[in-house]
Amino acid sequence: MTNPVTLDGHEGAIGEFDEKRAENAVRELLIAVGENPDREGLRETPARVARAYKEIFAGLWQEPEEVLTTTFDLGHDEMVLVKDIEVFSTCEHHLLPFVGVAHVGYIPATSGKITGLSKLARLVDVYARRPQVQERLTTQIADSLMTILEARGVIVVIECEHMCMSLRGIRKPGAKTTTSAVRGQLRDAATRAEAMSLIMAK
Ligand SMILES: Nc1nc2c(ncn2[C@@H]2O[C@H](COP(=O)(O)OP(=O)(O)OP(=O)(O)O)[C@@H](O)[C@H]2O)c(=O)[nH]1
Ligand SMILES: [Zn+2]
After folding, report:
1. Annotated binding residue at 76?
2. Which residues hold Zn(2+) (predicted)?
């Protein structure tokens, strides 16, 4: 996999994931914080962390088109909404997790082209598994549904807690950030209100 990602303002992948380099960097980090990377418990840690980073940033090597492949022409032209899709992403400022849920809704193209429901969750993962900010994650999901599915409207609402705000710095555990992106026909006040009431309903 060597396709660099260059989507909307994202720096993208600039090379293959270099496991050895990541491992060396983690070893250096352990030394920098005053640890001994050669002690029993830490000996395998750099390699483990490198593998973990490869996984949490796997989205850098995926394109949204790869996951929105399964489409059906059902002639369905009403809104489709998937709620409470688990989000696990990494804030690009501190490389700490932000976690929460995404709600993704769209009004299919006039052709009735829809995608598999699980593909919406896969799409969230493609963009979440990159160094991110929540706002960009939200707009990237919305924009790719508009362009790839040719949706007539899209709404994406994401609610997350940022570990960089909980564990360090301001230390406010429990604070939730909500971001939304609304496109096309979902900008219409009545349609948007209907979508929001479905999203807010427990
Ligand atoms: N808008 C936005 N900000 C984020 C996101 N994730 C983290 N941040 C913020 O990024 C900012 C980085 O601020 P800096 O002043 O450069 O870094 P810092 O000194 O570590 O900031 P503090 O977190 O306030 O201690 C912080 O305010 C974070 O809360 C995100 O997804 N979206
Ligand atoms: Zn952060």
Report:
1. no
2. 91, 94, 164
Q: Identify which of 87, 89, 91, 93 to mutate to test ligand 1's pocket (most ligand atoms within 8 A of the CB).
A: 93
Residue whose token pair is 């990377």: 37
CB 107 within 8 A of CB 151: yes
**Nearest CA-CA partner of 195 in 100, 76, 184:** 184
Which ipTM score applies to this complex? 0.91
The C-alpha angle 56, 158, 122, rounded to 5 degrees, equals 45
pLDDT tens for 138-183 read 999 999 999 999 999 999 999 999 999 999 999 999 999 999 999 9
For residue 107, count CB atoms less than 10 angstroms from its CB and return exposed for 0-12, middle for 13-18, buried for 19 or more.
buried
Q: Determine if residue 33 is left, alpha or beta; phi over 0 gives left, psi from -120 to 50 gives alpha, anything else beta.
A: alpha
By C-alpha distance, which of 103, 64, 108, 94 is closest to 163? 94
Statement: the pTM of the whole predicted model exceeds 0.80: yes
10 assigned binding-site residue? no
- Express the helix, strand and coil content of the chain in percent, nearest 5 each: 40, 25, 35
| Residue 93 alpha carbon to ligand 1 centre in Å | 6
Residue nearest to atom 16 of ligand 1 (CA): 93
